[in-house]
Amino acid sequence: MKKNKITLLLIGLGFIFSTATGQTIRSKVVDKKTNQPIPYATIQIGENEGVVTNEEGSFNITLDDIQSKKIDSIYISSMGYATVGVSVQSITDSIIYIEPKAIELKSVFISNKNLDIDDIIDNVDDNMEDNYRSDLSKKRLFFRETNTNFIKKMDLEFKKSTIEEIDEKLIDSISKVIPKNSVFYAEALCDFYGNEDKQKLRVIKGARLYDKNNNGSIEGIFKKMEKIFKDNVKPNSYIKFRSGLFSQKVQVDSILKNNQDAKDIADGIENPKENLFFKSRKMNLKNLFNQTFYQSDTKLNVIKNSGRYEFERVDYTILDDVGVYVIKFTPKRRGDFKGTLYVNTEDFAIIRIDYQNVKRLRSFNLLGLSFQENGYSGTTIFKKGSDGKYDVKFIEKVTENKFGVDRPLSIIEKNKYVKGRNKQNQVSLDLDIISYAKNKYEVIVFDAKTITEGEYKSSKENKNVESTYLSKYNPDFWKGYNIIEPNTAIKQFKTIDEEIEE
């Protein structure tokens, strides 16, 4: 009997340890006084590693990561709050309450207290080159992108066609099957190498989350169009796309090839060239890092063009026991943004910036083509390294754009090798389309370190990396990895097929 009890105990312990392996701890950071979630709080794991809470105050970490570092506690810090140490064993699926901390005016505050706002901004500008890392680095990061699209108007008016199968009925069916609302999520764990001037990317793991049902009927239309195209277009032809004064020639073979490449990428099939998932991750990460306020070509020119803004020191606060100026900025006539700067009182580094545009940033309307850049907002948080240089720790950025097309379109087949008329076939339409796109980007950098030119050159990209398609949110997909905790919308996302099955 005793032996059996010992055996059962060992089995039970084995079960506990086996389930702990790869276990993800999910928790939420909440203000103890207001009971409100605290977004963008830092969860410190070890000396230079950690995660950041999402906009709902939630975060996740993996037990494997903590146990490998022999850590028994994590530390939560946020602007204006006391840093709290929490035992790892007590945070599984729980809420962590933290309290605002009363500011103690240390000598650093007293010594800088008499600086006026112009002095502070001048010091920020003068120290910017020394404060932020500009050399080659390697960043281990997690990147999430959310694309939401809404088509407000979709009018395709049939004019004429020399191809019998392409008629008004087909054009109407195309207009009807194009989804008016769609959402797409992409996630990737990456190593990002380089600096402002050159970059390389290696994707460790990636996922795409969207509803293929939105593309199903469209795919049928494209297959039908492709068959019509192959049956009616002659070998060695080229297609001229003409819209008003503009025209563009495209070889038929390249159209068919691009169509197949796009289908392969959507289906997750490896492409011999760099695939769309890889290319988009690299391009967007480059843009995100190169649009931080201290970069040379940034839109967020609050410091580089400080004369366009009014600054007001509104408060002091603390972060990790370091004094911070809280500075509001608003635009003068030529400024584009409003927001808040959090400036370290010791080295005058901006350690966090919250921003939002106050007017349309760009607008283009010419010959029936229109574009408006209506929204540009976000938060960027920086972390100081052991060498005194600051790196990006966290980025959340949201852009909102409007697109419009109101003009004729002619698709003309031409073939100089066929006797008789050079023009073989023509399809003419009138387009009137208005669409809106909202893109949200989230990046958390787990580790950043300087690398040499040789290390950069030896780093390898995996341009053909395959991403995994998910029809609904799967909490096990990132099991064993630290990521940005998904918000409620992502967790509740599922395709029409998944809803039917449930």
Automatic annotation (TrEMBL):
This is CarboxypepD_reg-like domain-containing protein. InterPro entries: CarboxyPept-like_regulatory. The keyword Signal applies. Residues 1-22 form the signal peptide. Keywords: Signal. Pfam families: CarbopepD_reg_2. It comes from the Bacteria.
